[in-house]
Known about the structure:
Helices cover 21% and strands 19% of the residues. It is of the alpha/beta class.
Amino acid sequence: RCTAPQSLANETNTYDYIVTGSGPGGGTIATNLARAGYSVLLLEAGDDESKDIRTQVLSLNNYTNPSVAWHFFVRHSDDEEREKRYNLMVWRLTNGEYWVGRDPTVDGHQNATRLGIFYPRGSTLGGSAIINAAVTLLPSDSDWDYFNKGVGDGIWSGKEMRRIFERIEHNNYLEPNTTGHGFTSWLQTNVADAAVYAAGALRLKPVQAALKLIGWNPDAVVDYITADGNYLSPTRDQTAGLWGTPFHATSNWKRFSPRDYVLETLNVTTANGTQQYPLRLQLNSLATKVLFDECGGNGTKPQAVGVEYLQGKSIYRADARYNPTNKGVLNQAFARKEVIVAGGAFSSPQLLQLSGIGPKALLRKLSIPVISDLPGVGRNLQDNYELPIAGRAQIDIRDPPALNAPPCTNGAPGDPCVDMWREGKGPYAKGGSNSHVFLLKTNHAVEGERDMLMFTSGTRVVRGFKPDTKQNTTADPPTTFSWSTVKIHPQNGAGYIQIKSTDPQDTPDINLNYFAEGAETDLGSILDTIAFVRKAYRNTEAPVGPIEPFTPPCPAADILETGYCKDGEIDRQWAQDQAFGHHPTSTNRVGPDSNPLSVLDTRLRVRGVERLRVVDASAFPRCPGAFPAVATFMLSEKATELVLADAKSL
Ligand SMILES: Cc1cc2nc3c(=O)[nH]c(=O)nc-3n(C[C@H](O)[C@H](O)[C@H](O)COP(=O)(O)OP(=O)(O)OC[C@H]3O[C@@H](n4cnc5c(N)ncnc54)[C@H](O)[C@@H]3O)c2cc1C
């Protein structure tokens, strides 16, 4: 017997489109479609936390906050010994608290459970764009051209996608009419100005030493560091150098996210006071299954006609407030035209697999009826490797205390700096001193493009992500200087996510399988960058330099003139063990018919079924650039064009 679940559809539960997830992927397309006049149901598993000041002021970001972030725990590798060496492994103590480190027994904690490596994802209206660092650096044109590889329809060329960027940007930092940018649309962008670096002159010394190494003028450091990183040029992607980082933020450094776009759209009213755009936002609603009509007969593909979802707060196991007795309330909604899956790179493949779209063997093992056998669903999980390269300067390099500095309290109730921020003043109303990108083209660059991004993180070494704990930690001393590095064009597509059970409240098994593929290239770039930074540290002028590198931990006497470690294995193993990431993409990749791992065609339609698309970071065939958020906004804007063009025939 075939199933035709839409027989339960009625006027109140039926929309033109249903979108699951409100991040840069889902939030953008849901809003665009409603603005185009179509009725849209936007389901979001999280809540609207827009009243929480930490979600508004960019510098108060808190990626561990359970009211906006899901806590996933992943593996970096199949290699158990490597996992054991990861310094920020997370454990659950018998009293329920988290503990971070290699071995909790050193603190006297027996019987702790190893959870895995902390990997936060936004779960709130606006998605991960509410907890991200808001870096808005455009990817390479080649990342877009790669969509067409083996397909050749040219829908996603780099040139075309720049047009899309210009169409969505609301630039707050350049002269209006600067080519390659937009100034009137909704994606707010901003760059820190020179004032941010005025107090940090000491910390610019190592940056100047790095500039010298690439033949740039160290005296012009402030000009470079505030220049537009998203400038339009045919040679941009091949050019090493230093620029200011664009962020998705307003002129007053308020975080801009899809939440603003959605809420603004919901609040537009007609002359008679009714809501203008037919967008319905349903929060605390976890989509658990796509519903299909399979009654079309021979040769007809199953058609997505709606979704099943659970209504309830904190009902997903990655929510730190999850209570297993809360099962949520089961509901259904129906789509006249299409269902658009947009839960992000972890959750979208989970929803497809739960719905019978995925590798046949996995679905059969879990007794899920196969709707479409797509081995690529949940495969090809990619990530930008990150690793700090830190050293000790000869003197304290903290900013000198500012005269009459207001006593900020990090967003705690009554924080005077929040009031100042509301008036466009004070420390929260400006960019941070890490607002720049140093881009390198190493000896292992692929496609002749720059392959490593670095930014300074002041006297703090960013070693990875960890949840809040009650452990005593020692801060890095004020002589510390660190570059955070991010690998562009990672070559590894061996990561995967797959469901462990048919329970939609359960988290999937996630293994990034770091360095399983392309390790020579990826580690090569990382090792070249470590060597580059060590050379710059050595050449840093007094009184700050020379800076003595301590991580990666090659002994000082073994660091060669070239910056490489005499025993290359030390750096190599350190990079393999301690690299981390937080930019998962590509788990429902676009690709040609000839690639068995292609999940989507170039119009982002799921293969083997009708009326179902994926519009989020899982669709990228490869990791876009160093930071995927702006690419996801752009992908969703382009997807809107495709959906609207196809709407006429549905
Ligand atoms: C800590 C952190 C820092 C980052 N910093 C940067 C940065 O500076 N620059 C950058 O470019 N990128 C950054 N990123 C990554 C970037 O934010 C993401 O790549 C981007 O948000 C992906 O967009 P998305 O729409 O695919 O998914 P997401 O933004 O993750 O949104 C998915 C949404 O779907 C919801 N959802 C999931 N499953 C379901 C379901 N079944 N039903 C209903 N709703 C569901 C989730 O609750 C979530 O709100 C960062 C990410 C993190 C976590």
